[in-house]
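Chain X:
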Amino acid sequence: MRVLATLMGIIAPATAFAAGAREDSSGIFVWVFLGFCAMIVVAQIIPAILLMFGMAKGITSVVKEEMAPAKK
């Protein structure tokens, strides 16, 4: 929950600034929605990266076991 609160604390001022600096009639709700979508994407990417690192670690450990000389 702390990570989510931190992300919201970082994204909220950025969206407020972006909503005030634009002149294309997109209000604060559009930027809040886009920020929420970005948080969903980030929340999906983090487990995917951890999974890829886990798979790479598993593959390298199998390769190391195969290359190690057999103990008798």
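Chain Y:
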Amino acid sequence: MSARNVIIIPEKPELVRKSSIRQEQVAAYCRVSTEEEEQQSSYENQCKYYTDMIMQNPQWSMAGGDLCR
């Protein structure tokens, strides 16, 4: 029998680093203090602002799904 030739291929460092990055689940608390019509647009603006902020950060994921329900 002949001896087998074994080749060990090392892991690529950039793949190891990417897999070790853990995404944090992030949630935002949006609210308004009155039921006035101006406040409704304030609530929508808060939701959009925080949703955009969370989605643009690759280290974060949205906790609980859609922010503005």
